[in-house]
Amino acid sequence: MYSDFFSLMHRLRYIYRWNGTNVIYKEDVAQHCFDVALITHLLCEIYNNMNETKINCGDAVICALYHDYTDSILTHIPAPIKNDNNNIKNAIDELKIECKKYILQSLPDEMKNKQGQVFNKMNDKKIKEVIEIADKIDSYRKAKMELLRGNLEFTNAHKNFKADMDQIYNEKEYVRFFIDTFMSNLDNSLQAEFRYLKS
């Protein structure tokens, strides 16, 4: 059988985030999913080093890579709209369920169960927490980088994301380690030796 699954996931690179906002650097959903997966991996490794109970890094990273997979059909709906009230949130959740069914149905029969398990692991309490935090970190990073390049349209977004980051920073030790280690240098450009190969 012919499957639309890969074509659907491939469409994520054509779906842009921050709809209705003037951005200096456009960002598509595929880029965002990669960044969230990268942050999720680092968060999991840090968490596992600090705690006896472990998060399955492989499962978490795969879930992060797919975390916005329904955008391939729904396109990107900004968080302030999704979370404006319970009626909207519940309606979008219902749409996501229908999209999940459609996307799974697009797979060959022998792959549906395994991919369904991947999507279902997104509901694991710890995996869900880490991905949501990674998502917020990536959104904060985006807002900060736009501000640093003079885009004042991200002022309010940065303020809101910063408030979220401050709260998580104070509550989660592993997040505090990540932010102190990897986020403190966002204000600076990479040094030349990282941009050019040396002979």
Automatic annotation (TrEMBL):
Signal peptide: none annotated. InterPro entries: HD/PDEase_dom. Residues 25-149 form the HD/PDEase domain. It comes from the Bacteria. Pfam families: YfbR-like. This is 5'-deoxynucleotidase. It comes from Lachnotalea glycerini.
